[in-house]
Amino acid sequence: MDEAQARDVLAAAGVLPGPAGDARLLALGENAVFAAGDLVVKVGRDAELFDRARRELAVAVWLAESFVPAVRAADPTPLLVEGHPVTVWHRLPDPVRPAEPRDLAELLRMIHTLPTPGFGLPPRDLLSGVERWLRLAGDAIDPADAAYLRERRDGFASAAAALTPHLPPGPIHGDALPRNVHVGPDGPVLVDLETVSADLREHDLVVMALSHDRYGLPDAAYGSFTEAYGWDVRAWPGCPVLRGARETASCAWVAQHAPSNPKALTEFRRRVASLRDGDETVRWYPF
């Protein structure tokens, strides 16, 4: 799905008061995210994401009822338009500053105290998207690399299922990065709720550990995160397993962009090579 296709779906959805062509594209990944007036509209890449979109809206209502600062749905019902899920959200005020790791930690502490909601949440299966992302990559990537990632996926899925957690399991954000925090006039709020799950709380903490180890998050920034949360997941024996699972998923996620973006293919190859070599010092770059 490119921007033009997403705009066609946006126009067909008829959820904006003005022309879809006037909406501003904010992001293009698993979803195309458009802003217009006081609304934000997310257009999913394919129909497989419809159930996830429906759950994300339910999560938004639940977090509002639980007094957790998070993005709010403008319409609690998702649409399926030309094979694409479409959801409508209230637009947040302009940020007053960039989100910091400590902001994320404070929000995670709120979510990590909540019981699982009545509508239920799925486990955080980090690796469930690997097959779809590799399929979308098609012939753009080396078949041997795809086979390698499938083998890693299966190995880490088994290892993760056998972990003994340090923290009590329960609701998690699922993609706990500062980019998924928006700091407005009233403080930090969580955004991108589509991966909210019920699983090991350590999943949310391993994300920042990987940001430090692979993506160059400074020591001081990571330290502010662990201090605000109250624990460093790297002290947990299961950390390397969840880290390995997330690295595998991150490689496959980049692969889906390889057919149309040479930079994505370069980054994919760098990541896979570092995993094959067992070199944890190779720097990865956000994509």
From TrEMBL:
Residue limits of the Aminoglycoside phosphotransferase domain?
36-236
- Matches recorded under InterPro entries: Aminoglycoside_PTrfase, Kinase-like_dom_sf
A Pfam family of the record is: APH
Under which name does UniProt file this protein?
Phosphotransferase enzyme family protein
* Organism per entry: Streptomyces cellulosae
